[in-house]
Write a structure and sequence with these properties.
The chain is built from 1 helix and 11 strands, in the order αβββββββββββ. By secondary structure, it is α+β, with helices and mostly antiparallel strands. It has 2 domains: about 30 residues; about 110 residues, Macroglobulin (MG2) domain (Immunoglobulin-like, Sandwich). β2 and β3 form a beta hairpin. It is elongated, with a radius of gyration of 21 Å. The relative contact order is 0.21.
Length: about 150
């Protein structure tokens, strides 16, 4: 059996940890990646369309995210191709709504599935989005318009 002081200290520590963890979960639940899309261009800080399939006639693609309640946090766009990270772009969210984008120039032979993993600076994944980069001789673009 623990002495009374140690018991009180232990109970206080447990209560503090539960409160702190609940606060962190509540903050994390409030933060969200509101929108995340691949696009062919950015205009007025917004994506112009949504890329699902892109032919290798197009060499540059953008990845856009609309972040909510990540103020004073660092967010990363981690571009992956064939299971390897080929680009990491870091952003500091400076407001309650922060819109950011990164872009990648693709080589015509880099066909296949591309993905961007949106993570915190601690490595926690927040969102994963994929698109296919395909041969223009055998496939067509699949690009959706965005309603404004």
């Amino acid at each position: 059996m623990l002495p009374k002081r140690k018991h009180i200290l232990l109970v206080s520590l447990v209560v503090f940890c539960k409160f702190f963890m609940a606060w962190q979960v509540q903050a994390a639940e409030k933060s969200q990646v509101f929108s995340a899309v691949f696009t062919t261009a950015i205009e007025d800080r917004s994506p112009v369309d949504q890329v699902l399939l892109l032919t290798n006639k197009t060499e540059r693609v953008f990845f856009y995210t609309d972040l909510r309640d990540f103020e004073n946090q660092r967010i990363i766009h981690r571009w992956e191709y064939n299971g390897k990270v080929v680009l990491s772009k870091t952003f500091d969210a400076k407001g309650p709504r922060w819109r950011v984008y990164s872009s990648k120039t693709l080589l015509p032979e880099q066909l296949g599935t591309w993905r961007v993993v949106v993570t915190t600076d601690k490595g926690w994944p927040l969102k994963v989005v994929i698109f296919k980069y395909v041969d223009s001789k055998t496939e067509k673009d699949a690009i959706l318009p965005l309603g404004k």
